[in-house]
Amino acid sequence: MTSRVKVLNFFHQHTTVNMRTSLAFVVAVNAVVGAAQVTSPPVYPSPNITGAGGWDGALEKAKAFLAELSADEKAGIVTGTPGPCVGNIAPISRLNFSGLCLQDGPLAIRQAVYASVFSAGLSAAASWDRSLNYDRGMLMAEEFRGKGSHIALGPVVGPLGRSPFGGRNWEGYSPDAYLSGVLVEETVLGMQSAGVQACTKHYIGNEQEVQRNPSRVNGTTVEAISSNIDDKTMHETYLWPFYNAVKAGTASIMCSYNRINESYGCQNSKTLNGLLKTELGFQGYVMSDWGATHSGVAAIQAGLDMDMPGGIGFISGDSSFFGGNITLAINNGSLPAERLDDMVLRVMTPYFFLEQDKGFPGIDKTTDGMGFFPQANYKHQFTLTPLVDVRDDHGKHIREMGAAGTVLLKNTNNTLPLKQPKNIGVFGNDAADLTQGQYTGVSVSNGLENGNYDIGTLPVGGGSGTGRFSYVVPPLDAIKAKASGSLVQYITDNFAIVNGGLRGIAPAPPDVCLVFLKTWAGEGDDRVSLLAEFNSTAVVESVTKICPNTVVVLHGAAPNTMPWKDNANVTAIIAAHMPGQETGNSIVDILWGDVNPSGKLPYTIANQASDYAKNLVNSTELRESTDPNAWQADFKEGNLIDYKEFDAEDKAVAYEFGFGLSYTTFELSDLKISASAKNLSRTPSSSAKILPGGNTELWDLVANVTATVKNSGAVSGATVPQLYLSLPSSEAGTGTPVRSLRGFDKINLAAGESATVNFPLMRRDLSFWDTGAQTWRLPAGAIGVDVGLSSRDLKLNGTITI
Ligand SMILES: *[C@@H]1O[C@H](CO)[C@@H](O)[C@H](O)[C@H]1NC(C)=O
Ligand SMILES: *[C@@H]1O[C@H](CO)[C@@H](O)[C@H](O)[C@H]1NC(C)=O
Ligand SMILES: *[C@@H]1O[C@H](CO)[C@@H](O)[C@H](O)[C@H]1NC(C)=O
Ligand SMILES: *[C@@H]1O[C@H](CO)[C@@H](O)[C@H](O)[C@H]1NC(C)=O
Ligand SMILES: *[C@@H]1O[C@H](CO)[C@@H](O)[C@H](O)[C@H]1NC(C)=O
Ligand SMILES: *[C@@H]1O[C@H](CO)[C@@H](O)[C@H](O)[C@H]1NC(C)=O
Ligand SMILES: *[C@@H]1O[C@H](CO)[C@@H](O)[C@H](O)[C@H]1NC(C)=O
Ligand SMILES: *[C@@H]1O[C@H](CO)[C@@H](O)[C@H](O)[C@H]1NC(C)=O
Ligand SMILES: *[C@@H]1O[C@H](CO)[C@@H](O)[C@H](O)[C@H]1NC(C)=O
Ligand SMILES: *[C@@H]1O[C@H](CO)[C@@H](O)[C@H](O)[C@H]1NC(C)=O
Ligand SMILES: *[C@@H]1O[C@H](CO)[C@@H](O)[C@H](O)[C@H]1NC(C)=O
Ligand SMILES: *[C@@H]1O[C@H](CO)[C@@H](O)[C@H](O)[C@H]1NC(C)=O
């Protein structure tokens, strides 16, 4: 039964829960408020952990542990408490349990000292490189482990990137669900191979920062934005990469701030009990985003397993919807004791599975005091150890990933790689060293922690997804080191460039002018423009006026629009993304050709911002509204985001999804398609096992596509052959994408060398979500197959009929 109920929850806060418990609490049913009339169907009870997928041994250990716990201790295992980490679960010394330390974030152990700052998810995505993504996960996790952190709060596949303006898109991978799915799977596997629990986030529909949390307007609570996502879009786009994360065994999932169909992400029984714990067979625990818990019993029944950071006042830690309220609720019969047992088992099973009970390092004492909680608030004693430097030689990997995630967009006159230029000009604020400290922990404009400083390079974005740099190699320093012997002249003050041109550069023009532009983005707000910042257009125009050989390098959030892209004096354009601490070395490797660029765009670059569907809900009127349900984001475009929207409307683009140049050339030939000989059922068997990742038959290999790729140029290099499928819309429904990525591989070839690229296709890859039957279904008709070097450079085609 589906009904929209306004529930006055057990703990006084007025909030919408998609449950029909205790009608005494219902104050309004199906009230007509807000722009949309949406509901989220109730799905109860919350499924128990079974240990499926190889966790049964660990589950037995968790059960033995559970048997030793008092009711208060059980509540403690699922409730954050103030401590040295961003999130803390209290130790129980009687049981030799030293507690759990949770730390941000997806590209570094955020606020730690003597730790590495890795490439952001955006760069990792642009590499399209499975093994580099695995390594990135593993090496980051080694650093978390080294500093005593059991749980790393990453990776990110929500936001997926519905809107190019999304403030946190760069923390994750790509608006393409398949690419994000493959890369999140590699990352989780890599992280957990190092014995650290991954927390894949933010679940789900957290596609904008504006109004992600409730606000107060004139004394009224206005609820967080509601992402209203239809069932088909949910499965085919937003839930898709979470399948991969769960299949890879992600220990936890973080539920998001926003509402889905008007029910909060951390108390939505359809998304938590239904999609995640039933359909996807998730065996781990759901933790709240920080402060995203809006109720106790209601959220717990809906599937929330852990409240973070534990305090109602966000960081106070002295009261929680969980904690003591859980024991009260069990005692008064409003919460079954078995549900709390399941929560504890879900939290403790990954701990035992990853053998975190066996000699896990203590918490680096420098973590304490720089973080989140005032020490005066601690209620428990945590085990601290002396400062440890966890960086090892990870800088090598970061340099490699930074270059691998760099995309060459334009290269006329073969201006790149550089050929021993004698006179090099370097321009733009992004070329310089940092000038306002090495930590952009929060994105709001508050003094030195404001990441959107003027002069200084932008190696990663801001907010909880950032990292504290122990060092940064700025582009200018790396260029000086590489070009020693040449003249390197530079102006890194954009104001001076815009107002004074290249005055002061002599002789002028330089042989090559390297212009470094940047685009800030961080948690807490969305982007207001797609242009690079700090008068970037005027900077490019000032330089090109004098310099006919100008190379523009963009760092930071993407995509950017590029009004100067067809300026004949702009001979090369590079989207260099967010490479991390080795940023200068990574770009020098590309500019001088020590690394042949092989990055591909994991998103579309439009000719102008208005070519994108805006997909960002925001206005002055909304901000002033006191309607609690004013903020509604209807995902009306369904699956048609990013390139799928441009293809559906046959719109021109500046640079398409999957595009990226190389210093060599590649050819594709010899497409071969082989489908399974078996007479496959249209849907996976309903009696097949549900393991983490869902019905196991979804992952059965049902077809292979192969092609030959040849390096037809003069230097060695890598490329990424891409497979796109076109499902028949007569069966898959209106809004079926013209093409969807369903395979890719990064192939390294010496000049003249050829290789076979193989695209194994699983049942899910060829299926669409059948909303009536509530299952994935293979179409009976022919499925179009295209193999190419981008989403619009399709070299080979054919069909598959399964
Ligand atoms: C229980 O929840 C209420 C809010 O509903 C809060 O005021 C109270 O402090 C909580 N109790 C504990 C023990 O955390
Ligand atoms: C949201 O509502 C849509 C349209 O009614 C429905 O298809 C979908 O399953 C709902 N999703 C959730 C999570 O409630
Ligand atoms: C979970 O297991 C308990 C026994 O430990 C049982 O009482 C309860 O019904 C189970 N819940 C579900 C949803 O299967
Ligand atoms: C909110 O208060 C401001 C002044 O305090 C007033 O101008 C505005 O009209 C009020 N808005 C609503 C929706 O009541
Ligand atoms: C049960 O305990 C919870 C948690 O303190 C409280 O909010 C709720 O009102 C209680 N319910 C009943 C029926 O006493
Ligand atoms: C307690 O845990 C440590 C590892 O953290 C282990 O070495 C030790 O043997 C354990 N002690 C007991 C009594 O289990
Ligand atoms: C640069 O842009 C800022 C706004 O970002 C503007 O205030 C300033 O006047 C511009 N400077 C120049 C020299 O164009
Ligand atoms: C390109 O550079 C030449 C100088 O070499 C200059 O005359 C011309 O105006 C420049 N074009 C633009 C669009 O800036
Ligand atoms: C680049 O090539 C164009 C046309 O091929 C030519 O007009 C221009 O002068 C060249 N620029 C440089 C810097 O060589
Ligand atoms: C949202 O709207 C407000 C009010 O119009 C504006 O000030 C703000 O810049 C907008 N933010 C974004 C990210 O569009
Ligand atoms: C696909 O290729 C693999 C070997 O790469 C083979 O084991 C498998 O049987 C093939 N499957 C189909 C459906 O062609
Ligand atoms: C396949 O490619 C050929 C040649 O490029 C083209 O004429 C044909 O329309 C394509 N077929 C499909 C189904 O896309």
Automatic annotation (TrEMBL):
Short name of one Pfam family: Glyco_hydro_3
Gene3D superfamilies: Glycoside hydrolase family 3 C-terminal domain, Glycoside hydrolase, family 3, N-terminal domain, Immunoglobulins
Entry protein name: Probable beta-glucosidase G
Domain Fibronectin type III-like: 719-791
Organism: Polyplosphaeria fusca
Chemical reaction(s) catalysed: Hydrolysis of terminal, non-reducing beta-D-glucosyl residues with release of beta-D-glucose
Role summary: Beta-glucosidases are one of a number of cellulolytic enzymes involved in the degradation of cellulosic biomass. Catalyzes the last step releasing glucose from the inhibitory cellobiose.
InterPro entries: Cellulose_deg_GH3, Fn3-like, GH, Glyco_hydro_3_C, Glyco_hydro_3_C_sf, Glyco_hydro_3_N, Glyco_hydro_3_N_sf, Ig-like_fold
Annotated family: Belongs to the glycosyl hydrolase 3 family.
Keyword Signal: yes
Keywords in alphabetical order: Carbohydrate metabolism, Cellulose degradation, Glycoprotein, Glycosidase, Hydrolase, Polysaccharide degradation, Secreted, Signal
Localization terms from the record: Secreted
